[in-house]
Design goal:
- The chain has about 375 residues and is α+β, with helices and mostly antiparallel strands.
- It has three domains: about 120 residues, PAS domain (Beta-Lactamase, 2-Layer Sandwich); about 80 residues, Orthogonal Bundle (Helix Hairpins), CATH 1.10.287; about 160 residues, Histidine kinase-like ATPase, C-terminal domain (Heat Shock Protein 90, 2-Layer Sandwich), CATH 3.30.565.
- Strands 2-1-5-4-3 form a five-stranded antiparallel β-sheet, sandwiched between helices. The protein has a five-stranded mixed β-sheet with strand order 7-9-10-12-11. It has a two-stranded antiparallel sheet with strand order 6-8.
- Strand 11 and strand 12 form a beta hairpin.
- The chain is elongated and about 105 Å long.
């Protein structure tokens, strides 16, 4: 009589289901431990209950140092309120995806991180804890900062060239008028007329210089200003180019509150949108700029829009236009203008939307929504 062979996995009293469960648990543990992302768990009081190898590499704390400690050990003091909000949402069974914030390493260094946070539930569906997957995005943030700085330099260079061109015309006129006034020294009435015109040209130069300050001024400080005024400044700067391109500008400014913005950034956003529309209408067209009141996330907002009847953006490209370096115009532009504009707008707590169509009745409309309540906090 042959003797049955018992697989080595089946210890006394074990069933195939037990073995399968054990193997699954071991596999999951291996995946967690070999992950490049920090994976940890905590209870609903914020006490850390598990800590993987990647968490140790990223933060510099061993598992022995962190298990049993409060998660607040990793959170900068001014961000402690985040934890209460996170736990509140998770207790209700919610989930948080790709939440970008700051965390502290053991050596005191700040990290830019992206968090995905999920509730841990027992067999009855009751939330008993929290699992976190944390990714270090410091390198990405550093690259974004470099790109934004590069784009600022590029925008400054372009604006400097535009301003130099705009100043050159009245300067040439000024030289001619002074020459004509000197030649009319025996005819005071004529000379005074030339000098009066020269004075107008000087005022024009002064106005161009004043407009340029908005682009070169330090954009860190936020100030209260009129959105309509900022838009008109940009339009005045580009007016010669628009006229030469056969672009007609239509304006519709509703009475909206003054807003608090970092003026240099907002001037660049307006400029980027205007130039995009200009390039979309190589054979001329109509550019419409407008301001109105609106809402963003149920909060009062000011809205400004830039709309053209140019070539439009193909549907397959529309979802990518805010990606860095993405452009459908390889002959001009760097593909970072819209991306930087989006960063600036979102830095003000706002949102940038786009609608576009090709073919008959083609054109593109960008709308910028800026929440008034959030904007006022920029002054604090």
């Amino acid at each position: 009589m042959s003797e049955a062979v018992v697989p080595p996995d089946l210890a006394a009293g074990s069933t195939p289901a037990d073995i399968s469960t054990d193997r699954t648990a071991a596999l999951l543990a291996s995946i967690v431990e070999s992950s490049d992302d920090a994976i940890l768990s905590k209870d609903l009081d914020g006490t850390i209950t598990s800590w993987n190898g990647a968490a140790e590499r990223i933060f510099g704390y061993t598992s022995a140092e962190m298990v049993g400690c409060s998660i607040l050990k990793l959170i900068p003091g001014d961000l402690h309120s985040e934890e209460a909000e996170i736990l509140k949402k998770l207790r209700a069974g919610g989930r948080i995806d790709h939440f970008e914030t700051m965390r502290l390493k053991k050596n005191g260094e700040l990290l830019h991180v992206s968090l995905t946070i999920s509730p841990v539930k027992d067999d009855t569906g009751r939330v008993t804890g929290v699992s976190k997957i944390l990714r270090d995005i410091s390198e990405r943030k550093a690259m974004e900062k470099t790109l934004m700085r590069t784009e600022k330099f590029a925008a400054t260079e372009k604006m400097a060239a535009t301003i130099a061109h705009e100043i050159n015309n009245p300067l040439e006129a000024l030289v001619n008028l002074v020459y004509l006034a000197k030649a009319s020294v025996n005819d005071p009435e004529t000379a005074v007329g030339y000098l009066a015109t020269a004075e107008e040209e000087l005022a024009r130069i002064a106005q161009i210089a004043k407009q340029s300050l908005g682009y070169f001024r330090d954009s860190v400080g936020a100030k209260q200003t009129s959105l309509e005024r900022l838009i008109r400044e940009v339009l005045r700067t580009y007016e010669p180019r628009l006229r030469a391109a056969g672009v007609v500008v239509e304006m519709g400014f509703d009475a909206v509150p003054e807003i608090v913005v970092r003026q240099g950034e907002m001037l660049q956003v307006i400029s980027n949108l205007l130039v995009n529309s200009l390039h979309a209408m190589p054979n001329g067209g109509v550019l419409r700029v407008a301001t109105t009141s609106g809402e963003i996330d149920s909060k009062a907002a000011v809205v400004f829009s830039v709309e053209d009847n140019g070539t439009g953006i193909a549907a397959e490209n529309l979802g990518r236009i805010f990606e860095p370096f993405y452009t459908t115009r390889t002959d001009i532009g760097t593909g970072v203008g819209l991306w930087v504009s989006k960063q600036f707008v979102e830095g003000h707590g706002g949102r940038i939307n786009v609608e576009s169509r090709t073919g008959d009745a083609s054109g593109t409309k960008f709308s910028i929504l800026l929440p008034i309540e959030t904007l006022h906090t920029l002054l604090n």
